Amino acid sequence: MDQNSIEREEEKAPSIGEKTDTSSTNDIQPPLSQPGPNVSKTNSRHSNALSRVASRLSTRSLKDPGPPPDGGVVAWTQVLCAWFAILNTWGFVNSFGAFLPYYRTILPQPASAISWIGSIQAWLLFALGMFSGRALDRGWFRPIVAVGIAFQLLGIFTLSAAKSYWQLLLTQGLCTGIGGGIFFVPIMGLCATYFSAHRGMAIGIVTTGNSAGGVIYPLVVRQLLPKIGFGWTVRVLGFINVASLAIVIAFMKPRLPPRKSGPLIDWEALKDKPYVLHVLGMCFIIPGIYIVYYYIASFARDTLSMPYTTSLNLVIIVNGVGIPARVLPGFIADRYIGVLNTMTICLLANIFILFSWLAVDSIPAVYIWTVFYGVFSAAFQSLFPTSIAEYSSDIAKTGTRLGMGLSVIGFSALVAGPLGGALLQAAHGNYTVPIAWAGASTLVGTILCVCARCMKFGWGVRIRC
Prior knowledge:
By secondary structure, the protein is mainly α. The protein has helices at 3-12, 37-57, 73-93, 96-106, 111-137, 141-159, 165-192, 199-251, 273-304, 308-320, 322-325, 328-337, 339-356, 363-389, 398-426, 432-457.
């Protein structure tokens, strides 16, 4: 070995106390920049766990299952779950007439101010559905439904402790309205994906939950409020929500993978005159419905001296008789004369019945009147969402136009109850003014809807549409 080789070897040898560089010795320790096998396995396990969680929360892992099953145990289970959802959202809204007379006895505010509680709740159900429905398209059904149910339960159980007007407004009006508005549209949309030929029947059965809720909620209030007080009565309603909505979370099963959502607003719809006229007509019709649902019990108490607990029978009846009436019109429309023609017949009957309310002056008469109005108003309500869809020639834009229409109609629901209360207050408790306004508003709305139908499909009476 020469002198130069010896010097090079000495330069490589570390001195005493000097740290050795082992980064180049692969057989002793792996490079720091490359994780070892244990680290790789750990990262892989974490990644797989996150993927499993994401797949359970969303529908990203689903593949296109093909055409809807249109029946079967799973499909009809979705109908049952959607029925529970409607029972606890729109059924709750339609029951506000059972709460309004009680609130008038414990609050100093007039009926027009108290009505904002139910009106805000109804408006949020209309308005938020336009946005929450898109979560179903994006594959986030379970998270959005869970959030909505959480708001719903929070609102009900805090309502049980509410004492003042603002507490009632924030809990029953705002919180339950937000909760129901978040989850009811995705649930309805999911239910519809399981049916094709029997979709009309399935949705008709689901909407009977609206009427069933309008029976169950007032019935619980009537039976329990005098015995256990307001707080525990509302808690019982909360436990009903917990039990039924737990079934919804447990058994509702998305079947479609995420899909691209359309635009939130279809600006071309604003240039579609029949569509605009029809939505405007609905804005005049909806207030008449809420006048009845909110004030029928108060009318019986103030005008006919009916006791509070007995007056709640009217709220139960006006909702209960609507259960069969929500299924039959869809069958007639699909099989014989079309959605718009069927709805027009129901609206003409509603106009006549509303104006006949002015002649009701006895307890038997108010019971008979409530039955007739409950049947025809429920028939109309089962058809009006489908009627909006009739004005969309592009099926890809039907959902967008329906969401736009419902959001606009929601504002009429927002002002309906308070406006009726203001008219009642201005008339010094005389129900003639709000009743006449409800009938006249329904008449104007029907004229607008008929004009829209004729502009779109023609003026012939025999045209099926």
